[in-house]
Every structure is written in C-alpha cells, then in structure tokens.
Amino acid sequence: MKIKKGNLAIEAPIKETGVIKRRKGSQKLYVDFYYFGKRITRSTELDDTPANERKVRSFLNRITERIEDGTFKFADAFPGASDQEKAFFTQKEGREYRPEPHQVLFGDYAKEWMENIYPTFGSPTKRNDYREALNTRIFPYFKHYTFYQLTSTTLFKFTESLVRLKGKDKGKPLSTARKVNLLIPFRAIWNDACDHYRWVLKSPFDNLKKKLPKTEKKEHIVIRLHDWFKFLDNLETHYRPIAEIMILTGMIPSELGELKREDIEGDYINVRSSYVLGEEKKSLKTAFRKRQIFITQAIRERLQTILDRSTSPHVFLMEDGKRFNSSRFSKIWKKAIERAGIPETTSYSARHSFAAWSLIIGVNPLRLVSLMGHASKQMVYEVYGNYVEGLEDDAEEMLDYFGKDFVSRKSKSPVPFRDSTGDSLGSSVLTTGTI
Predict the structure, then answer these.
(1) What share of the chain has pLDDT > 70, as a percent?
(2) I need a labelling partner for 246 at 20 to 30 A (CA). Which of 114, 212, 217, 374 fits?
(3) Cβ atoms within 10 A of the Cβ of 392, count?
C-alpha cells in the first residue's frame, strides 16, 4: 500500500488481518479472521509449506486492503461458502447477493425450499406426493448438480432411468404419465429458484415432453351391474353398505371419511369437506364439490345400517372403529375384486359407475353435474359419456337398484333415522330436521 510523504510515494507496512493455522490431524493451511463481527475459518486446500504460507499471507493481506477500501466481496473470495453466509455478508457489504446458476447446487437450494416453501402447501395430498417424489427419486439423482447443469437432455436421461421400485412390476419402466407427475415438484423448485435469484434461463422442461413417448390416457372402468353384485358378495360384510353408498351417491372415500352425522340434514347429505392422509380439509377439490345429495330410499336403508353400528360423530368407520381410511379401504376393495374374479377396478370406479349408470336410467345431465360436483355438463359428457355403451341391458335392474325416487326425487316411505337405541334421530326424507 502506497502513502504520500511530501512529494514522495513510499510503501507503507501492510496491516495483517487474521492468522494462518493448521488444524490437528490436517496437513492443510487454514485462514482464520473476523469480518463484520463474525469469525471465518476456511481451509485453503494448500499443504503446510513455507511457500504456501507466504501465498496465504498474501491472500489475507489483499483481503485487508479490500476491506479497508470497501471493495472486498466475501462471495467472490469464498465461492465454496454456503448460500446463507454469502447472502449474509453480501447484505452487510451493501450489495445484493445473486449467485450464478453454476454456483448453486440443486440439493442445497432444494433443502431450503423444503424448509420454507414446502410447508406452505395446504393440500396434504400434494405435500405427500411432493415429498415422496423428491426423497425417493429426485434428490438422490440431482442433489450434486448445479442449476446450470439441469438441461432437457439431463432430465431426459433421468426419466429414462425411472423404473418401478416395488410390486410385481418391480424394475419395469414407469409410464410417461407417471414420469411427468414426478417432475412436477422438480419444476416447482426450478421456477422458485429462478424467481428467487432472478435468473433468466431457458427451462429444461420446455422440450422434455416432446422427447417422452406418448401414452394413451387411462380410462376408469365402469362396473357392470352383475359384476357389482359379485363384488359385494365377496366384500367384507362391514364394508358392503359403505361401498353401496359410494355407488349410489358418487361420493369418494375422502368425502366419506369426513362426513359427520350433523352433515345429514332433512332430505340431504351435505358434502362440505374431506379427510385426506390423516388431515381434515375444509375445502374440497373444487368449489363445486361442495354439494347436497338427495337421500333416496335405497341410500336411506344403507345409511340406517351404518348409523346403527356406532355412536361416533363420524358416519363412516373402519371395522375396528377407527376413522374411515381411504388407503386401508382400497386394499380391502382390491381383495374383494380378486376374490370375485371380475375386471380390476379401484374404489374410484364407483364414482364413474354412478355417473354412467345415472345417464343410462335417464337422470338429467344437468342434475348429474350437480350430484357429481362438476362445473359444467361438458365434464359429464367428456369423461363419463363414452362409458354408456354396453350398459343398456342393465338399465331396468339399475333403476330398481337406485330406486325410482332417485330419478323422480320422491320418497315412498318417509321413515325417520334412528340411533342405535331405536330412538328417532330426526326427520324423514320428506320433512326437515337434523340427524
């Protein structure tokens, strides 16, 4: 450092900052100094030799000069420091920390994202799906990649490596639809990182879909009536009226799990919320899913059987008395399907069957839109309309099963619900009251 003395410029002694040390058990030199009141200890990765010690001292002296003239940048001097440290000191220096994509590891940013962004998702299903995809697939593969290395080619190689991890198809490639779903949380992290660091980068996801093989959209199978009766015969007795409520109303397991006695009022079942992955959701999939379902005589008979079995405030329970659980029920459903020897279906097929059967027996499509909780009849025709063909032969038996009051909405037997003691719980389907 030069200072002026009269007309002469002479070299002033350099003020030394920090110390050079060697840690026990290590042959490398370390620097140790304070910056904005914080102690900084870093390995130089240089062996402990006199020549290297002179290099390190020169490095520390340059740090001193730059700190004094206000040009020192911690992030540039220590590129291997954590993002938190870089951000902290950059802010102290009066600058904005904006690392480049090649300086940020996906794993480091994703860890922060899981701590700060992930918990804000209100949907337990979404959180569960994201956590599983990230922990089992994405983190193990990409945690050491920088964002600069994340290209469509890199992602395509990743998707090509994806196989089933368990079950009878273990080792077989995943479907394109499943691969695309796994990339959803990956894309969310990418977008948030670009927004956070204000990067303007070409998304590696833009052209990826074009490289993946196209697969036909899987259709939900509609159950034929005679297969439905075979299924019921092979379903555990406790769950038969529950399964029948599903196919008579179009309700899904998560809605059953949250239904309370107080939600059955007068002539209607009020679907207001759902129970997903052990959490109560006050909002449904869409605003239209909040709906009223008219209680027909067929529905009433099954509900009475279910209500007589317990005094729980929740209507639907597992056989052991615990809250109705869609995951457990799906396994029970699958076993009954296998025992019955009928085409494979899931419990969600009951909802699709309800819609298809309703169209067959002449329910007004606009009313079906309301019963299903959709926004418009377009959904009814596009998703369920193509399942009608081949079911006409079952129409008369379907009408008997649902009951004519399902179509006309008039009850023939206004019998009130009872509790397990035989006392009346409220109104008939033609009067008002609360169960």
Answers:
(1) 81
(2) 217
(3) 10
Neighbours of 80 (CB within 10 A): 10
**What structural domains does the chain harbor?**
2-97 (no CATH), 106-211 (1.10.150), 225-408 (1.10.443.10)
Rounded-to-10 torsion of CA 416, 418, 424, 427: -30
% of residues, the chain, pLDDT over 90: 36
Nearest CA among 25, 23, 2 for reference residue 13: 2
- 120-158 pLDDT per residue, tens: 887 777 888 899 999 999 999 999 999 999 999 999 999
CA 400, 401, 403, 409: dihedral to nearest 10 degrees? Answer: -140
Residue 368 has pLDDT above 70, yes or no: yes
Q: How many helices (H) and strands (E) does the chain have?
A: 19, 10
155-207 pLDDT, tens digit each:
999 999 999 888 788 889 888 888 888 899 999 999 999 998 889 888 998 87
The strand pairing partners of 38, in sequence order, are 35
Host H or E run for residue 255: helix 253-258
User: DSSP letter at 134?
Assistant: I
Nearest to 44 by CA among 13, 101, 58: 58
**Quick one: tokens of 3?**
């200072």
* Segment holding 397, helix H or strand E: helix 395-402
Residues ≥6 apart with Cβ < 8 Å to 25: none
Rg (CA), the chain: 33
Q: Among the ranges 224-233, 287-296, 387-396, which has the highest mean pLDDT value?
A: 224-233
In this predicted structure, the answer to whether residue 54 has a pLDDT above a threshold of 80 is: yes
Element of type H or E holding 352: helix 349-360
Tokens read off for 407: 């179509």
